[in-house]
Amino acid sequence: MEGPAGPKGTQLRREHRITQVFIELADTLVDEFDVVDFLHTLAEVSVELLDVDAAGLMLADEDGVLRVMASSDDQAELLELFELQQNEGPCPECFRTGAAVVNVDLRRWPDFAAAAAAGGYASAHAVPLRLRGQVIGALNLFRTSTEPLADEDIALSRALSDIATIGLLHERRHRGQQVLAEQLQHALNSRIVIEQAKGMLAERTGLSPSDAFTVMRSYARGTGQGLSMVAHGVLDGTLDTSALLTR
Question: pTM for the complete prediction?
Fold first, then answer.
């Protein structure tokens, strides 16, 4: 009989952590809900819970064009941007077809395969985000291994993409039931402001863009402000850089 340290114990700990994460994500759906922070958290927990090395989320703007919304790290963001620039890879295909793209040979997209390899990734997968039958984006998953993504990880990735959709629905309720296209565009506009502030803070402090984002997010959470509000403060100079770094 296997003890807690064996495979059974490992599985139980993983299941417990999955339960914890879903509770934590549900707890973020409060009045101060910040959709950009929420989606970044979702990308990070995707890496924690799934057998993947990086993750990201893309949403369609009001014209139906995919945009990068959140990434677990800078390398994943670069690869997501490459997918959009070249309009090839698992995420654009997933968005076009509405079907999950998993365990597919990357050589079907030669340019993307080369870019993925240059970034250290050997496989990539995408799961659609659906809202009332409409595909509104996709969850990207990147791995350094060519081993197939396990069935349980595929199922969990679908659950995480559903959580992303729930978060977007929650924001929509707080914004007066605005039409879906406007709501998604608002989220994307918030991300643009945050990306600009992240770059400015990185330049001022010498931090990496990823670390600059972490500093802004920690400050936002610690002060109860929205991430986009903190980003506006960085951009217009009303938020002192030293206050961010010493929080």
Answer: 0.74
